[in-house]
Amino acid sequence: MSRGHRPGHRSRGREGHSSPPHGGRTLVLPGEEIRAQGLKPGPGTYRTGGKVYASVLGLLSERPPLVSVIPLSGRYIPKPQDIVLGTVTDVQGTFWLLDIGAPRWAPLHMTGTPWKVEVGETDRFLRVGDAVIVQVESLDATGRIGVTMNGEGLGKLEGGTIARISPARIPRVVGRNGSMIQTIREHTGAEVVVGQNGRVWIGGSPEAIRRVSEVLRIIEANAQHSGLTERVESYLLATTPTGSRGPEAPPAEHAHRDTPPQVLSSAEPDEEAVDTEDDDEDGDDENETPDTTERGEP
To answer: What would the pLDDT profile of 71-86 be if each residue is shown by its tens digit?
Structure first.
């Protein structure tokens, strides 16, 4: 074993990767050494012994001053300012417990809502099974997640259904500058709300919900390929209901929100982070803020 290498680490970098290119990008494995060449460890990486390694399976992304690994799949790891969809799993006197797909449930305190809630009356506002859109407000050293419903576009979701997709695929669901989500809405007439935790709320007619759900399956299976927006649009045009003169009418029931959020926070890579259609100069805009620790965000 060469000096400075630890068990479980693979010594591979930009100059000598044995991992095959993945649609023009370099696929790296967990524990694989990355030749950072002066870049700091970003999301999906960590530093040990003066070297930078990948912490997840994904695609190498170099955005000075950070080198990152964009995961191909995995469990949602919350970050402050993330917009997420949650389901109420328990109701207590002063808070609700939400399942947001993270390793731990997230408590939503009654003071974190736009409502005037009295102690013991929480079940008048949200019940088990209700869906909400909230923002991750804080994370403490123990992993406890704080969320809030106070903010534009946040609130209780009425009707509709929630679909699930890998959190790593969410940038492709949104698309560059919202191109994918706009295409889906225009061709289905559905109301679609995307959470960074891999949850997607779909409101509309049963046919609209079915078509959006099928589009999500297409995105999940083809996220690493270029030209995905065009592929989805072709599918939607080919499956437009006979006699349809345009987008379906808006759903009778809709979420109690101001404007459905569709653009991810700057902490997420944009659609082209896992696309190969265009050069990076046009693409990702991860806009990551350098970490003060030696370990990149998951």
So the answer is: 766 678 898 999 999 9
